[in-house]
Design a protein that fits this description.
Elements (H helix, E strand, L loop, with lengths): L25 E2 L8 E2 L2 E2 L4 E5 L5 E5 L2 E4 L8 E8 L2 E6 L2 H7 L25 H8 L14 H13 L4 E5 L2 H10 L7 E4 L5 H10 L6 E4 L5 H5 L6 E7 L11 H10 L4 E4 L17 E5 L13 E5 L13 H4 L10 H4 L4 H14 L5 H34 L3 E5 L9 H8 L6 E6 L3 H10 L4 E2 L9 E3 L11 H6 L7 E4 L5 H12 L2
Parallel strand pairs: 1-4, 10-11, 10-12, 12-13, 13-14, 18-19
Antiparallel strand pairs: 2-3, 4-5, 5-6, 6-7, 7-8, 9-15, 14-15, 16-17, 17-20, 19-20
Helix pairs in contact: 1-3, 1-11, 3-11, 13-15
Length: 511
Amino acid sequence: MFNYPRFVLRKTDFAYSQGLCGARQLHGLSNRPVGQVGARPAPVGLALIHDVDRRPVLVFAGFLYEGGRGRSDAIVRSATRSPRGPTVKRVRDETIALHSGYEGGPTRAVAVPIYQTVAHDFENAAHAGAVFDLEQPGFHYNRVNNPTVDVLEQRMAKLERGTAAVAVSSGAAAVRYCTRNVTEMGSNIVSAPQLYGATYTYFAQVLPNEGVEVRFAADDRAESIAQLIDHNTKAVFCESIGNPACNVVDIEAVAEVAHGLGVPLIVDNTVATPFSLKPVAHGADVVIHSLTKFVGGHGTTLGGVVIDGGTFPWASHAERFPMFNRPEPAFHGVVYARDFPISPYAVRCRTVGLRNEGAALAPFNAFLLLQGLETLSVRLERHWQNARLVAEYLARDRRVGWVRYLGFADHPYHELAKRYLGGNYPSIVTFGAAGGYDASIRFFDNVKLFKRLVNMGDAKSLVAHPASTTHRQLDGPALARVGISPDMIRLSIGLEHIDDIIDDIDQALDA
């Protein structure tokens, strides 16, 4: 929900509803309103309490939310009351993916409704003005916010331990908004080289034409990235697990060098998913996803999301990030870092990026992505199990020249994968046929069960030849930099019976 009101409150009972969508009225510990917007009460359902360690936490819609600047390990918990006051009980990811952000409303519908509407009716002129000035929460025009999309945003933010999220029409839109939100002409971002092909092309070809330089590090190591950061650098970007290189970035090390030089870290967590890795817990400031992949999981729906970790001190770096620290003329002088201290990045992404460029996620697409998110945890278990069996089969086969799978001890990133993924290795397996490029192409051309396409994370098993599809625009040296060889085949292992998957691989290798 577009619910980013500004409140002038005493420090002892302050709370902001930004990023905690659907708030209806703000309450303090005494259960009395503590914020006003003109003559209208501030939004309800949000309360400030303290946990067992006396740390301030926010309760919203039955959930207790702990976070804010300086705490990268924000968690979502349920809150209950005992005779001695609030107690805290953790809500696990599987439950968040099914229930967070939606309570049924007046109809008591169990499934999240599809709000297929363009706009929402204002109560009166004062109400319309307050919503448009960001002084009061409310849905108004569905290019900017929508109730169905709002539930998806809340669930993704909570799963990634962020403070707010902005859902957009595709993963590519998420890449654009997350970078353009911090850059301006003459600035630069520094990126690890191992990227999805469309992201690499956007960084190498599109952003430079808009006056933003992208500097690709020699590799994904923190020291290589640090060498390229200067006073005009606005962000460091990486994929937590590179697609299709399957490198694993040492997020904590990269975050340390980025923060030491006053720069936020943006992490694309599409391949890992929040069920394996939460970059914010390791120092990332912004997390993005292509929801098209594992979250949607059925190859039916495009979508993306940008998640504000709520951790970067934008106000402390006012000279580097003027867009967060100067008055925004489109909203009567709003200063994002000052007026929205919990989620300034998400608020600006929505009100400047999404509002003006319009890559909005359709309500029906949000509904389909919510269905995928609800079953993600159980699908991932089957993905992981099948992928290991496929990798082991390929490793034993003499028709295969090489295999890369993060679960193998000889993989160069295996130790980092163990540290960050906890043994949940993604269902992406890459290999090259023993006969080199020609043999790999014959394999690609002769699969029958596998679908030849450039998506991944689907319930169905998929196969791609990156050098001729997703990374076709790259020459030989550029392919090597992003971790792709001409003979590489990328398998995205699906949910079919493992014997059928292996039978198809076997017959294609014989072609």
